[in-house]
Hints:
β3 and β4 form a beta hairpin. It is elongated and about 50 Å long. By secondary structure, the chain is an alpha+beta fold. It has a single domain, classed as GTP Cyclohydrolase I, domain 2 (2-Layer Sandwich), CATH 3.30.1130.10. The chain is about 25% helix and about 35% strand. It has a four-stranded antiparallel beta sheet with strand order 1-2-3-4, covered by helices on one side.
Amino acid sequence: MRQDLDKIHIRDLQLRCIIGINPEEREKKQDVIINITLSADLRQACRSDCIDDTVDYKTIKTEVAAMTEGSRFLLVERLADEIAAICLRDARVLEARVLIEKPGALRFARTVGVEITRAQDVGK
């Protein structure tokens, strides 16, 4: 992966979903905080100043929110992987980094989180 790729950030997206393995976690929605970093070549968008030449982060946010709020995954890892897959549907996104935090999941800890990085399959 090129190190000089441009980045688009979606920070502190606060959503609620059913997530966790414990019985009490399966009963009601919990808060999750999602941070997404999309790596892409944005040079054409910089030149054209046209939305069609960039990654539409509003669309990605809308799709991530709809999927997350309707999900019932056991693991934060699975949720992060599904979010990365949504991001990579746009071929201009070459890499997606997803950090999900689950506030209050551990006593005495402000939050616990999982971070994953996924990239486009270059062998397609």
